[in-house]
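During the practical work, I worked with a single protein chain and the tokens that describe its fold, as given directly below.
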Amino acid sequence: MKKHFFLIGMALGLLIHQNGTAQINISSNNFITKFISNGAITEAGMDFQKDIELSANEIILSITILPQNLDNVIYNSWQIDVRKNDFDWNESLELFIRRTGEGKSDFNNKPQNGDYYQKIESNNSFLFSGQGWIYDIPLQLKLTGLSVTLPAKSYSSEIIFTLIDN
């Protein structure tokens, strides 16, 4: 029986493109790790579960636009783009992301879009948008493409969020 052990690592990063001053806070363990052990295969001819979803709040984003004034706290619009930077990755593996909640706002602001899985590519792509300050927006990751045909080793990719202050 061939033993497989995968370590999938995803580091989180941040870029800010702005007209004014913008801030994004990312809460996670900053290095998300998923272990897939050889115990997942119990008999010949079996394969790994193809899709692995991490917890619905694996990543938490909070958006604030500074300075703190009524216009920025309530009305200033922004968008979040996402991309990945592969360090040691196999092209058979794909990462997907989605927004799983609306977060919190003192003024009932809510993010728009991003509630369906989309593939994270190496180029920036739109994830979701909003306006004003919104805290604790939960994001979920999904990994696809696992197979016993992949070499057993560690794979890593960095997920980069870009906050664009519109």
Remarks:
- The chain has one domain: 6-165.
